[in-house]
């Protein structure tokens, strides 16, 4: 694994299994760490890795495309990580659609897919040593999902060690995951570039998520209140933090089917709530249950403060 390199467009090395599969329009599927080691050794660099839990949609396709644009070889991982699911969460009903996932990844020019079984990733059983997300992992999503981000970071660290990427790409939609992976890369010297890819959205603004598939027709319509609230909040960024929160909250109140867990205006790096007089970049984040489906979304914005003469300052 080397640190960041610039974008590259070279195809995978000729004569390798990954190169042959890519030329045939489908990724090479590997399921064991030994196979992965062999295939990884033949990949032309820089190597980009996109980590997923499968059930792929256009949002993942955007990640794969961004990876394709900046690396000579692209590896995607498909692994539903039990460690990041709490008791009563949807591990068992999480959709498993490997055939369709391979088709999508093939269309996006992914060279190799690593889709291991649980025993391949955790050969010694549930790990006794895990990565701790610390206080960054206890706020926002972490407040209602204790241990979730320890599970995420542990598997991300393992997949980085197994796939040895130059660059890993994560969606802006999971802003807390992104912030934590960035921090882990720094704190644990992962020596990998972490790239954020903008949130991919449906026509009405709803952020693409595997969980959208659980929404019935009425809930699907109601769910569009999340991006509307974020847009309305962001539209008040020039008026400062208080106005942003108030505008977003007013929009959310207008949709009784959305049971809001949190609406937070936070620093994008340390995830702490920004003070009312904050000026500069921030993240407006929301989580709500619509029907039985919990949805999250966020938008980065730059806050200006209201000066005494009524003008704005940045
Ligand atoms: O974002 C996800 O799909 C998962 O949290 C990840 C990063 C693949 C780890 O399991």
Structure at a glance:
The protein is of the alpha/beta class and 314 residues long. The protein is built from eleven helices and eleven strands.
Describe the structure.
The structure is a single chain. This protein is of the alpha/beta class and 314 residues long. The protein folds into 2 domains: 17-197, HUPs (Rossmann fold, 3-Layer(aba) Sandwich); 215-313, Pantoate--beta-alanine Ligase, Chain: A,domain 2, CATH 3.30.1300. It contains 11 helices and 11 strands. The strands form 3 sheets. Strands 1-4-3-2-5-6 form a 6-stranded parallel β-sheet, with helices on both faces. It has a 3-stranded antiparallel β-sheet with strand order 7-8-9. Helix 7 (148-163) packs across helix 8 (175-187) and helix 10 runs antiparallel to helix 11. It is globular and about 55 Å long. The model is unreliable at 1-15 (pLDDT under 50). Pantoate binds at residues 51-53, 81, 84, 152, 155-156, 174, 177. Pathway: Cofactor biosynthesis; (R)-pantothenate biosynthesis; (R)-pantothenate from (R)-pantoate and beta-alanine: step 1/1. (R)-pantoate binds at residues 84, 177.
């Amino acid at each position: 694994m080397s640190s960041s390199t610039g974008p590259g467009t070279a195809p995978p090395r000729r004569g390798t299994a990954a190169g042959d599969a890519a030329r045939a329009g489908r990724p090479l599927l590997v399921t064991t760490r030994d196979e992965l080691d062999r295939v990884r050794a033949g990949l032309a660099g820089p190597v980009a890795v996109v980590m997923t839990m499968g059930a792929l949609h256009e949002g993942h396709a955007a990640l794969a495309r961004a990876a394709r644009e900046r690396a000579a070889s692209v590896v995607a991982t498909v692994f539903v990580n039990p460690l990041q699911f709490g008791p009563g969460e949807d591990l068992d009903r999480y959709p498993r659609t490997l055939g369709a996932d391979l088709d999508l990844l093939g269309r996006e020019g992914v060279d190799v897919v690593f889709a291991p079984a649980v025993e391949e990733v955790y050969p010694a059983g549930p790990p006794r040593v895990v990565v701790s997300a610390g206080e960054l992992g206890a706020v926002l999503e972490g407040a209602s999902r204790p241990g979730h981000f320890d599970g995420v970071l542990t598997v991300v660290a393992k997949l980085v060690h197994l796939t040895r990427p130059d660059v890993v790409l994560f969606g802006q939609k999971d802003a807390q995951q992104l912030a934590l992976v960035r921090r882990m890369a720094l704190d644990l010297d992962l020596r990998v570039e972490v790239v954020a890819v903008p949130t991919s959205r449906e026509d009405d603004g709803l952020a693409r998520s595997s969980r959208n598939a659980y929404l019935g027709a009425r809930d699907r319509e109601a769910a569009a209140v999340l991006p509307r609230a974020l847009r309305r909040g962001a539209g008040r960024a020039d008026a400062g933090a208080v106005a942003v929160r108030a505008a977003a909250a007013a929009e959310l109140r207008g949709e009784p089917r959305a049971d809001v867990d949190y609406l937070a205006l936070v620093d994008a790096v340390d995830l702490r709530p920004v003070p009312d007089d904050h000026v500069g970049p921030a993240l407006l984040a929301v989580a709500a249950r619509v029907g039985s489906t919990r949805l999250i979304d966020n938008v980065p914005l730059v806050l200006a403060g209201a000066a005494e003469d009524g003008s704005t300052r940045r």
